[in-house]
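Lecture notes, unit on binding sites. The following record was shown on slide 14. It pairs a sequence with iron/sulfur cluster.
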Amino acid sequence: MPHPPSSPGAFVALPHPPRPTVEALRAHVRAGARNSPGIYRMYGPAGEVLYVGKSVRVRTRLLSYFRADRGEKAAEIVGHAHRIDWEHLPSEFAALLREMELIKRWRPPFNVQHKADAAYCFIKLTREAAPRLLVVEQASADRARYYGPFTGRARLRDALRQLGDLLQLRDCGAALPMRFGDQGELFGVDRAPLCYRGELKTCLAPCSGLCTQGEYAERALLARRFLEGDAERPLAILRQRMDAASGRLQFEYAAELRDRAERLLAVQEELVALRGTIETLSFAYHVPGHCGDDRLYLVRRGSIRAELPYPTTRTEREFAAARVRDIYGAPEPRLSSVRPHEIAQILLVAQWFRRNPTELERTHPPEAFAGVERSA
Ligand code: SF4
């Protein structure tokens, strides 16, 4: 029977090709995959990526999917797969980086959340007319400031609530309109705060014209300074309140304020320690390749700024020396908050060396590769 004529521009949906049998997928893996490091991808009917995984032995890992019992995640993934492919890479470290890159790019449905991200949370200082302090699971590229990563959401929320109360920052929703006291159109507006925090004076109440935008911005700046290492003002406020409570013989309340101060300081010390850890992740990292294709990773502040063949010839050494000068030659501004696009990689690099401490023996000061004549 002839096909019906299609009008110009009409969309004709093509049926998806039939799903290959599980046996055909297994034969494809058996025929092509090697037992060396790499990543693999499973695709759905329309070519969409369903899952990305990595392994030091790609063939063995892929074949294990076909032995999974019903109800296991591996059996479910392979049960949905219409196509499987893989990339062999020089090392487990290279596979880990590639897996992270692909998961970030495609967010495949069976990779629920990247394991390295899942346990962490961050402090976010929003970029709004009246900024707020929030605990968030992920940092996004929205021009807010992010601090962390931390573990322990409840503890962090508690510390931020105290910091917010001390500095009188708001914690209401983003959609609530702000009416600063220096806005002209406030004439005749009822200046009653919109929630109990304004009544209790734990918020400056920018919702109701009870502070100017400048007054609020000053408090938000103090919060930022606190998170970046300057605890003086919030702690001074706490000390004044402690003294006042003791003066009124409210010793229990004074002790509670002292505990609050300690919890706030603990968060700040953690941030200082984190910044220190990130600074220590600056080196040249030599990773032997599975088939002799060794790589050199130039890492600064936990992020991989370059990946090169490990230099063995004069030309390669010249190239490596130039990259080292580019990357480490100029000082970088003091590390305050973390850049959202670098966080996943910093976490991955930190976790890699924590789990494989002997790998630190393969790290070198970058200057070791800055001289061309140096033997590799
Ligand atoms: S007083 Fe107003 S600005 Fe402050 S938290 Fe409550 S609703 Fe938000």
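Take-home: Strands lie at 38-43, 49-55, 83-88, 121-125, 133-136, 145-150, 283-287, 295-300, 303-309, 363-364.
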